[in-house]
Amino acid sequence: MASTVIPFGPQHPVLPEPLHFKLKIEEETVVDAIPAVGFVHRGLEGLVSKKDFIQMTQVVERVCGICSAMHGMCYCMGIEELMGIEVPKKASFLRIVWTELHRIHSHLLWFGLYADSFGFESLFMEFWKIREKIMDINEATAGSRIIISVNVIGGVKRDISPEHRQWILSTLDEVEERLKRLEKVIYEDFTIRKRTVGIGILSKEKAYELGASGPMARGSGLDIDARSLGYGCFSELDWEPIVEYGGDCYSRAKVRFREMLQSIGLIRQAFQKMPRDEEICVKFNGRPEGEVISRVEQPRGECLYYIKGNGTKNLERCRIRTPSFANFPPIMSMLIGCRLADVPVIILSMDPCISCTER
Amino acid sequence: MAIEAEATPVEELMLKVVTLKESGYRFVTITGLEIDEDRLEIIYHFALGLELKNLRVRFSRGMTIPSISPVYFSAFWPENEVIDLLGIKFSGLKIDYHGTMYLDSEDVNTVKTPFCRYIYVKKEAE
User: Fold this and answer.
1) pLDDT tens digits, residue range A49-80?
2) Domain residue spans of chain B
3) Could you report the predicted ipTM of this complex, rounded to two decimals?
4) What is the CATH number of domain A44-358?
5) A204 interfaces chain B, CB cutoff of 8 Å
6) Residue A317 class from Cβ within 10 Å (0-12 exposed, 13-18 middle, 19+ buried)?
7) Out of A159, A225, A233, B109, which residue is the most buried by the measure of CB atoms under 10 Å away?
8) Fold of B1-126
């Protein structure tokens, strides 16, 4: 049978980011999919030779807008370990609050785009309306909506006042209530089920073999969540990784939906267990020397930083392995055998972040 | 965590990778580094659950390294990245972008190995 190659992206109605796939199709079925990136490669890892290790905190936050707080946290945790800095406990809890807020707003953004990918415009607007509540919290507590720049080496820059804490908790109650109203739509709506159940299947074995990460792995029954490492103060919080077993687009959406509700619970716990002392940042001397690997769980999966310092103000290497980067081989396997019409939904179900992938 | 990496000669790399795969390790990523003017290094990161296992391979510049993508298919992706950024050569790659994963193949002024401090080679016009 003659095959045709169809270019998908980098400009496509459902794709907010510049990603290109060369889809080889036979009739309506995809038989091969080769990704092509390189449209937004900025060489941020290479900036270590120009910016010192303190300025690099701001650089890594710009790797990705949606998970900027996690990038900052992961980098700072690495440098802190390298230099033997002990972060105040309050700062660790504050980091959890901001990073979990980032997880919620990232998943809400994704749900909007996901609904848009199968033409459910009103659901798209509903999710983005809820997302604005989280952005308001970011703006009120950190002064900025997305790149909040709260992490510094040694702790955090800002504290959350008791008044703000009350307001955040009541806003989260409202967000939770509005999310629960949409739960039935995501889980039971006929159109959504029709477009997502059994589509883009990634088996547990394939997910493990291809190194899937985050909701892609957990939606296929793999219990991999870097928060289980207990970094920051996660070991003091009561939670369990969320795992679904379907391996299809529906399961991945379910993982993300349950994670949003879980993150709200984690923020409540963090506020409860947060010590009342004033110290949120410690001073430090010296320059980083040696190698370290730092890992955090971002909305899209496990992020790994390899940092190598040589005792000067510039690091020797800062390698960033983002979850979107790791999820490319699994998505290639998921696309093979699917129908052309399902390609946008399957690609969206991975939550691709191309600025993370290319850095 | 501070990094523990097992020093591995290039000849033993494939054997070790196959053993890791048989022991149930998953592939995480690879990190390419420039050690000095003559030497480069690749650190291979694997994981069992969340526990990391690293292999460190040092070799001289210009040497061809066997690709581990026949064992772990997903390795072709970071290996292509390392080709672009550090100019390391791999043999047996499952999918090869020939140094154009990030970099432009048509622009003759593109720096060939942008992450190398010592060698800056302009791409030759074809």
Assistant:
1) 888 889 899 889 888 888 888 899 999 999 99
2) 1-126
3) 0.85
4) 1.10.645.10
5) no
6) buried
7) A225
8) Beta Polymerase; domain 2 (3.30.460)
